[in-house]
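Major facilitator superfamily (MFS) profile domain-containing protein structure dump, as promised
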Amino acid sequence: MTAPVVLIGFGLGMVSGPLADLSLARAPHEDAGSASGLFNTAIHLGIALTAVVFFAITGGSPDGAVNRDAFVTVLRWVGGLLALSALLRLGARVGNRQLVGCP
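structure tokens r here:
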């Protein structure tokens, strides 16, 4: 279980800064505080929902095998959602380039 946790930490470290820049780049200067608060709220809500799913799967069991299985399940869901969001973002970029280049 050490390798997935290290990968999560590395991935979050590599993604969180650019994600904040990307999310807040188009916010008007006068609304920057509100946009930042909304961004941080969304991040914390995602963390809380992940914890809810994890403990719903384990039922609060202290058994290591159950916790490991729940961790792997949550990791797969999070990885799948990240992959889906990356594909959607990539599709939006490709779609924008095609629209801009059309006469």
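The chain has one domain: 2-101.
lmk if u need the other ones
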